[in-house]
Amino acid sequence: MGNFIDSKYVKKICAITMASYQHGWDERNGGNVSLRLTDADLQDFNDINEVHRVLDLGFDAQKLAGQYFLVTGTGRYFRNVIDQPNLDLGLIRISQDGQKGELMWGFEDGGQPTSEFPSHLMSHIARLQFDSNQRVVMHCHPTNVIALSFTQDLDERHWSRLLWKMQAESLVVFPEGVGLIPYMTPGTNEIGEATAQKMKDYRVVIWPHHGIFGVGTSLDEAFGLIETVEKAALIYSQIGAQGGQIKQEITDDQLRQLAKSFGVTANPQFLTNK
Ligand code: 2HA
Ligand code: ZN
């Protein structure tokens, strides 16, 4: 038995929020992350046993009833989470009717979950249909990804091909490509629904002029996915800084060979026909 604040879950969220901040992806209160936990994950903690507050979720999350989400707070700074996790993080249990969030731990100075909590929960629901190990949704503001949304057509095939061709690693890490939604107002159920819709086909969804949503089975995996997309976008920016002229590139045949070699299935819609 121990206290939840000393758990590997809190420690890892602290590490990931600090790493994301240090990458420059979370100015001020930018970014949010949620980690799904179950009764079994929490049975060893003696301070997870009562409901401290009940919050309105604003949509029907019944598919997640009884599940717990360790989530960053609205208005909180990723930079600070490591120093005050009991204030900037909360552990929320979804009520049996799916309408409420029950605060079981954290947000000790009155905090509330991120404004993007509905988007997170909707994305968890969408991904759980494909992967019962789905645990993490992460949102942040990676600079080069956002910059691309000004200079490139907002087209999934174009973005996926561009990012795949910036480095050999891209196709291996996101062989399905990246999803894109139109610019929408953040913090609304509408952007959450549009994001979750895309999460049926992709694990990365770009929010033009704003940032990125990435999902995974672990914090490391979701973070690494975002890191790889942002690295590809950074290389594109650097190509621009070197004059912008591309003299040679990874060909579609080489992408096919990559997929074969690493045992992944590249989204066929995003490759040219042989
Ligand atoms: O958490 O990033 O999109 C603040 C945001 C909202
Ligand atoms: Zn944001």
Automatic annotation (TrEMBL):
Keyword list (alphabetical) reads: Cytoplasm, Lyase, Metal-binding, Rhamnose metabolism, Zinc
The residues covered by the Class II aldolase/adducin N-terminal domain are: 11-237
> Which PANTHER family does the entry mention?
3-OXO-TETRONATE 4-PHOSPHATE DECARBOXYLASE-RELATED (PTHR22789:SF0), FUCULOSE PHOSPHATE ALDOLASE (PTHR22789)
Its job: Catalyzes the reversible cleavage of L-rhamnulose-1-phosphate to dihydroxyacetone phosphate (DHAP) and L-lactaldehyde.
- Any signal peptide, and if so, which residues? none
Query: Which pathway does this chain act in?
Result: Carbohydrate degradation; L-rhamnose degradation; glycerone phosphate from L-rhamnose: step 3/3
Which compartments does it reside in?
Answer: Cytoplasm
Give me the comment on cofactor binding: Binds 1 zinc ion per subunit.
Single GO BP term: pentose catabolic process
Similarity comment: Belongs to the aldolase class II family. RhaD subfamily.
Give the E.C. number(s).
Answer: 4.1.2.19
- What species is this protein from? Bombilactobacillus mellis
Chief subcellular site?
Answer: cytoplasm
Q: Which gene encodes it?
A: rhaD
| Catalysed reactions, semicolon-separated | L-rhamnulose 1-phosphate = (S)-lactaldehyde + dihydroxyacetone phosphate
Q: Name one GO cellular component term.
A: cytosol
Q: Where does Zn(2+) bind?
A: H139, H141, H210
Q: Which cofactor does it need?
A: Zn(2+)
Q: Is Zinc included in the keywords of this UniProt record? A: yes
Gene Ontology MF term list: metal ion binding; rhamnulose-1-phosphate aldolase activity
**Which residues are the active-site ones?**
E116
Q: Provide the protein name.
A: Rhamnulose-1-phosphate aldolase
